[in-house]
Amino acid sequence: MSRGRARTQRPARPGGIGSAEVVYEDDHLLIVNKPAGVLTAAERSDSRRTLHDAVLDHVRSNSDVALRVRPINLLDRMVSGLVVFAKSKRVETALESLFRRNRVRRIYAAVLTGTFDAGEGATGTVQSTPRDLRKQRQRRGGPPTSPTPAVTHYRLLHQTDQATLVQLRPETHRRGQLIDHMRQLDRPIIGDDPRRAAGPLMLHLEQIAFEHPRTGQDVRASAPRPHALTASWQQFRPRPAGAMSRPTQHLGNRLRGGTATTTPHGRAITLQT
Q: Buried-most residue among 14, 23, 181, 194 (CB within 10 A)?
């Protein structure tokens, strides 16, 4: 994404894309609950209205100063949940550093295809070489000198005979990490099907927490699971008590490309985007 001056004071694109809720806001940053199907941000040449446009309208309508507003965590279009925006270059740099150093705690809810042998409440960890380092390794004909693994922790919340509701906590911040790791588990996120047209991905960033870059206080925000994710989960028949699960890969087994180990701030308002 371009960070040039041309985008700093650009006007917001007109139009509507639904609604988004501001769940936290102060003088330095704000956190917005993004609906699935909405772009977080786009290049200047893209005519589609984005969440960034809606936030620009909101911030500028409440300030006489032409503030710099930037999204920090760019959720994919079909992913819903919490997006952090900075209101200044200084705060933007500080927040990006927190994400880069994995100092931001994020918890996602997801509905996976298939079930696990382990019972509800079981936890696990998926670890893999990042996608960019895998490509680098292929180009060079060997492993990179110091690969940094991508790590995701997960907890099984509920299971039916066809699907599993999980909580995902990425320890690292890599693009596509959660989708890749659930594929490695052979339990892709519902909606993750490259053979079909893109639809809502049953993945929602429901909690986020970090140290405020200016005040040093803890910032915590949460967003309820969207109707689409709840409806996707409820369409599956609950597993009968005592029923055996269909054969699946055990949580402790080695996975393809990685390993698994069993083990209020602010007043909420609505943005018309």
A: 181
Strand boundaries in 147-263, DSSP class E:
150-159, 163-170, 203-211, 218-222, 254-255, 258-262
Q: Which pTM was predicted? A: 0.77
Q: What is the pLDDT of residues 83-126, one digit of tens each?
A: 999 999 999 999 999 999 999 999 999 999 998 988 778 899 99
What are φ and ψ of residue 66, in 5° steps? -75, 85
Q: For residue 225, give the DSSP letter.
A: P
Sign of CA dihedral 91, 94, 95, 96: positive
Two tokens, residue 254: 């080695």
Quick check: helix, strand or coil at residue 82? Answer: strand
Please state, in angstroms and rounded to a whole number, the distance separating the CA atoms of residues 166 and 124. 11
CA 47 centroid distance within chain: 24
